Amino acid sequence: MNVMNFNVIPPPSRAATDLNYEADLKVALDPILVELLDRAEAAGWDRRKAAYTVMFLAARNLTDSKGPPGNGSSAS
Asked: Would residue 41 count as lying in a domain?
């Protein structure tokens, strides 16, 4: 049985400019994402909508530099 410690993400072994950097990152993050989606689904959330929400939150995390995260709404 392959047991992975989800509290540890392995560090990169290549420079960010290396062509295989993103492939290595996918390998590092994939089991963590699968576990997250499994847990969301087990809690009753739709897996596809959970995956979409992860993409939304990831994109917002890169673009939103205004304090704590909100609910994604632009309404004030």
From this structure: yes
Q: What is the mean pLDDT of residues 14-23?
A: 96
Assess contact for 33 and 54: CB atoms under 8 A.
yes
Q: Does residue 3 fall inside a structural domain?
A: no
CB of 51 closer than 8 Å to CB of 37: yes
Query: How many CB atoms sit inside 10 A of residue 34's CB?
Result: 10
pLDDT of res. 63: 84
d(CA 15, CA 21): 7
Report pTM.
0.71
Tell me if 5 sits within 8 A of 31, measured CB to CB.
Answer: no
Q: Is residue 45 in some structural domain?
A: yes
